[in-house]
Design brief:
- The chain has 9 helices and 20 strands.
- The chain has 484 residues and is of the alpha+beta class.
- The protein has 2 domains: 181 residues, no CATH class; 162 residues, no CATH class.
- A hairpin with a 5-residue loop joins β8 and β9.
- α1 runs antiparallel to α4 and α2 packs across α6.
């Protein structure tokens, strides 16, 4: 049986197991990641960390389930729930395997000072044994005033799907005896590492240092060392938090995601590939935060800013692959209505142009969004009318190759609400290169019923809106490349 055949077979098994989920991972009981399917950069580094935390402290049997959302136990934002359960135990040839899936709820855009102000924090909590749910624990969680609506029902529906995948995996295993080889996982990780190493060998070796100042007040200092053997990211000297807080595992995910985007080739997301990345995040910096620091902005904005800085650094070492700055961070708004309903939306910006091509329009650069509510669903669920969704024409920086355009979306409010917003790039729009223009910064404008208008200049804040007010939200355009 060839090494490539066994590795390919394992890859098929893993992809089939993770296929129904938007964000999920499979790993061994020893903590070796085998595959990850992700929606956000933070997922890349934290899904494995969450499962490793659970398996370290909870001896589990088939059918047992642990949930969590605590960022300091491997979660991301409090609106994302991670579910961990065994996939395979006590096999004679294969290590114990575990499945971790992540399911999300509509987030709240809260400008908080502590994590517990952002919502209900769930540390690793057992909720099922031998596929029998502990209804008392679930009832206690759901009774908390900050618990996401429909949490228990969502967990139950996800568990039905999870257990089907567990049964299916074991059936596949029984029908394919060639998979049951003692070295199959070791060989699979070895081949992944070898493939990633070959990609690195195609790049020139080099070292660079950059410093990036963020509108939220933090700055990133990065020393990047690229070689055929590894990529080293040293963030020593990076500032403490002003408004952004990431965990070190989320920072790792941003590093890996940026490298994958730069190479523009599929890289296996497992411990074999991960072993070629060495990330140093100093304790106390905003890239290695500790409880009770709030994490919503760090897990959404912060990871994108880190990835953008890494792309800049890689472009210094490999100039032929350099491209202008993108609107790394989407423009985000939330509306909190008097009846307790909360609406959240995120508008992606434009991608920076390169030396060979225009930038793409309104692309969620660092996210893989599996599903968004349609306009009809939003207008049914919330007291809102959406009167416009369109590209923000000419918002990309002009040049020989123009940056991608941002997006404009208009909302008419039907009930009084509190508006919250976050829009990076307001003061420092995405930069153009080689004589091209910068992208247009984001903008949020409120048109009141009395005819007055208010342009929101701050990077983040709150405002009250009344019945009939129109909120016009525009995301930033990407930078251009080269003189027109």
């Amino acid at each position: 049986m060839s090494l490539n055949f066994r590795s390919d077979l394992l890859k098929v098994f893993l992809q089939h197991t993770l296929a129904p989920f938007a964000s999920a991972a499979c790993l061994t009981g020893e903590g070796e990641l085998l595959d990850i399917k992700y929606e956000t950069l933070a997922d890349v580094g934290t899904l494995g960390a969450s499962a490793q935390t659970v398996t370290r402290y909870f001896p589990m049997q088939l059918g047992d389930v642990v949930i969590l959302n605590d960022p300091y136990s491997g979660g991301t934002t409090l609106s994302m729930i991670t579910i961990v359960t065994p996939l395979l135990l006590n096999h004679s040839q294969i290590p114990n395997l575990y499945l971790a899936i992540r399911t999300g709820f509509r987030p709240q855009l809260l400008l908080s000072k502590t994590l517990d102000e952002e919502g209900l924090r769930i540390p690793p909590t057992p909720i099922a044994q031998n596929r029998i749910l502990n209804e008392m624990i679930l009832a206690a969680i759901s009774s908390h005033p900050l618990c996401p609506s429909g949490l228990v029902e969502r967990i139950k529906s996800e568990l039905v799907l999870i257990w089907k995948r567990v049964d299916c995996f074991q059936t596949l295993l029984q029908k394919n005896s060639q998979f049951s080889h003692r070295s199959v996982i070791k060989d699979y990780l070895k081949s992944s590492r070898s493939y990633f190493s070959q990609l690195l060998q195609e790049l020139p070796a080099g070292e660079t240092k950059i410093e990036t100042h963020l509108e939220s007040g933090e700055f990133i200092r990065l020393r990047l060392d690229l070689s055929a053997e590894a990529i080293c990211f040293d963030f020593s000297g990076t500032s403490t938090s002003q408004r952004l807080c990431l965990t070190d595992s989320a920072t790792f995910g941003a590093c890996f995601g940026a490298v994958a985007a730069f190479l523009q080739k599929p890289i296996p997301l497992n411990s074999g590939s991960f072993s070629l990345l060495h990330v140093t995040t100093p304790l106390g910096s905003f890239l290695n935060a500790k409880y009770p620091s709030p994490t919503f902005k760090g897990m959404t904005e912060g990871t994108s800013q880190v990835a953008g800085a890494i792309l800049q650094a890689l472009g210094e070492i490999v100039p032929q692959k350099k491209f202008s700055a993108s609107a790394q961070t989407p423009t985000q708004i939330s509306l909190e209505f008097l009846n307790g309903q909360r609406f959240f939306d995120s508008l992606s910006g434009g991608i920076g142009a390169s030396s060979t091509s225009h930038g793409a329009d309104a692309v969620p650069f660092w996210q893989r969004i599996s599903l968004r509510n349609s306009i009809q669903e939003i207008e049914t669920l919330f007291p809102l009318f959406i009167t416009q969704v369109s590209l923000r024409k000419n918002s990309g920086g002009q040049g020989q190759f123009h940056g991608g355009d941002g997006l404009t979306k208009d909302y008419v409010v039907q009930k009084e609400a509190k508006l919250r917003w976050i829009m990076q790039h307001r003061k420092n729009p995405p930069k153009g290169l080689k004589g091209a223009l910068d992208g247009t910064p984001p903008e949020i404008r409120i048109e009141r019923m009395d005819g007055s208008q208010e342009i929101l200049d701050r990077t983040e804040g709150e405002a009250l809106v009344s019945v009939g007010d129109k909120i016009s939200v525009s995301s930033a355009g990407g930078g251009g490349y080269g003189k027109a």
